[in-house]
Amino acid sequence: MSLANQFAAYTAWRSRLASNIGELQGWLNHNELSDAQSDLRLMQLLERLREDRLNVAFVAEFSRGKSELINAIFFADYGNRMLPSSAGRTTMCPTELLFDGNKLPCIELLPIQTRASNSSVSEYKRFADEWTKVDLDTESPDAMQEALRHVSETTRVTPEEAGRLGFEVGSGQVELYSVGDDGLVEVPRWRHAMINFPHPLLKQGLVILDTPGLNAIGAEPELTLSLLPNAHAVLFILAADTGVTQSDMAIWREHICGGGMARRGRMVVLNKIDGQWDELKTEAEVDAEIQRQADSSADMLDVPASQVFPVSAQKGLVAKINGDDVLLAKSRLPLLEAALSEELIPAKRDIVCDSTESEFGDVTRRVRGLLDSRLLGLREQLTELTELRGKNKGVVEYMMGKVRAEKDEFESGLQRYYAVRSVFSTLTNNLFSHLGLDVLRQLTHQTREAMLDAAFSKSLSDAMAGFFSGARDALAKSNGEIGEILSMMEAVYKKFAVEHGLKLGSPTTFSLLRYEKELDRLEAWCDDHLNTMVSLLTHDKKNITQKFFEEVAIQVRRSFEHANRDAEVWLRAIMAPMETQVREHQIQLKRRLESIKRIHQATDTLEDRIAELEGVENNLQQQIEALEDIVGRVQDMLMPPSAQTLQAA
Q1: What residues does 234 pair with on adjacent strands?
Q2: Any residues with CB less than 8 A from the CB of 422 and at least 6 apart, and which?
Q3: What per-residue confidence (pLDDT) applies to 38?
Q4: Between vectors from CA 21 to CA 23 and to CA 507, what angle results, nearest 5°?
Q5: For 99-132, b where at least 16 C-beta lie within 10 A, e where not — what string?
Q6: What is the per-residue pLDDT across 85-107, written as a single tens digit (0 to 9) for each?
């Protein structure tokens, strides 16, 4: 199955999953089983499924054929090249290809001058007026080609301006950022580009990131810290005729498989193998030559040979457009697409399954607990009323007194519940005093001042180390508060279960481990890029502080924002079952007492009331069966495809 077909199948699966979850939400509302917390969690889950994105990044030095490879894999069905592809540098700035149905087809370009500020690209995305917009005429390939050439534009600035914008003039890749005869330096005109294009794959949620070469990546830390690590797949493109060059190795180590980045979804593409095709050599000799280059590249990059894919993107594109199956096979492009499908789609599916299973499971367990509690209370009423058959008025009065005493005892026990709520509120405030953003803002401000005042390299390193130490300390203290809340709620759950028969199970657990690991990743990146003598000697100290630290601080702040949101959801989730069960138990006791009162007052007959409750019992049973049916369908969809196949067999 091709990548396009596999992605279409994944999108259809995601749509069916969202449909089933939407069915649960509607069913809960129809049966008056929903509450604000459950409804909010299901809405957020559905929103995540609707906005689900599959991010694929293409990384290489210039002239490796990135744009042509993107055209060949994703846009051959369009019948032409979507991205400009020619000799030399065709992509001068990071370029995202995506689809947003709320906008007309267009290219949005962020001027390079915005680098002079300390704001990241993601922050600029909130302000449409900062971007230059170019409309796309999707009906005209020529007009499209012309519009897309904007990503290749450059501008000339003074050496001082180039340095202020983060370009190293006269060092590193001297041939790229050197002073010309006119005393100016040629730099990219745009800092970032977003192409909104209604291609079927982009409509389904595919996002493609096309990156420029080493200098542009290094000067835009957001690429290294956020966009590349968050990509579900990164394709690193080499040229078959040159193999792994020094600059290729620098990109690989610094931006793809360094700084604590995971290797999953990282593939090496050895492009332009058609340059090795030689009519004077046998096919076996050509294949052996290509394999030697692939093995050499794998050895230098320290990856398995199976992770290196020799291809000809240009021939693959031509073959797809012309329907030439022989040339397509020779280009080896289908082998790369198959590997990408097998690696990318299942990995993305696993992420969606994990998040869905957690949220959906919590909501359905809570609803099932509520229905079980109602059924148990109803059966207790039925037992009591059945035992009253043939009894005299005195027995009815005794039963009424017994239920009233039980109700009074439970309500006196509620004082403990209210005390728990008070302690819970105090512990929650303690948690957010450590995890909240005010602490992080103060820490960021102190670190920024320390770095600006630093006179030596070691002072810069110490300031950065202090920043991470402070952030990690905040997470450690927050974990302590989370453990205390969890211990208290476990004890309260057990106590109310024993004393009042509430079905509470175990409280939902919560961990900040993922945010601790994100801090580890960011600190490892800083150790690799900022805290080495080479880096400190070849970069301006102020530029390090203002550009790289600001981006690091933004990433840490995002982690804390996510941690705060997750903690708020968890705190509501851990208290909600108890609130629901306490409220439900109160209602059941009240109903039991009212039933016996009505029988005592002869406002209806005992048999009529028993028949009425039996009808309610049947309805509850049907609700439980309906819930189990929806839950079963969703759980089947969350199973690995191999397990689904076995189950079907």
Answers
A1: 57, 266
A2: none
A3: 82
A4: 125
A5: beeeeebbbbbbebebbeeebbbeebeeeeeebe
A6: 655 556 778 889 999 988 999 99
Domain that holds residue 591: 403-603
- Give me Rg for the CA atoms of the chain: 32
The verdict on 318 and 446 lying in the same domain is: no
Checking if the pLDDT of 601 tops 70, the result is no
State the pairing for strand pair 206-210/54-59: parallel
Q: How many domains does the chain have?
A: 2
Secondary structure (DSSP) of 271-307: E-GGGG--TTS-HHHHHHHHHHHHHHHHHHHT--GGG
Predicted pLDDT of residue 537: 44
Which pLDDT score, from 0 to 100, does residue 37 have? 76
| DSSP secondary structure of 572-613 | HHHHHHHHHHHHHHHHHHHHHHHHHHHHHTTSS-HHHHHHHH
Percent of the chain with pLDDT over 90: 24
DSSP 511: -
Q: Which of 357, 351, 348 is nearest to 637 (CA)?
A: 357
Residue 66, domain member (yes or no): yes
Q: Which of 331, 363, 380 is the last residue of a domain?
A: 331
**130 and 274 housed in the same domain:** yes
117 in a structural domain:
yes
Query: For the chain, what is the mean pLDDT?
Result: 82
Residue 525 lies in a domain: yes
Q: Is residue 308 part of a domain?
A: yes
Q: Hey, which residues does 192 pair with through a beta bridge?
A: 110
Based on the fold, state whether residues 325 and 429 are members of the same structural domain: no
Residues 307 and 422 in one domain: no
Residue 47: count of CB within 10 angstroms of its CB: 11
Amino acid at 31: N
294 and 414 housed in the same domain: no
pLDDT digits (tens, 9 = 90+) for 606-648: 778 788 888 989 999 999 999 999 999 999 999 877 655 444 4
Say how far apart CA 87 and CA 648 lie, in whole Å: 52
At residue 96, φ and ψ (nearest 5 deg) are -105, 130
In terms of domains, do 456 and 312 share one?
no
Please give the pLDDT value at position 362. 84
Among residues 348, 320, 328, 331, which one has the least CA distance to residue 269? 331
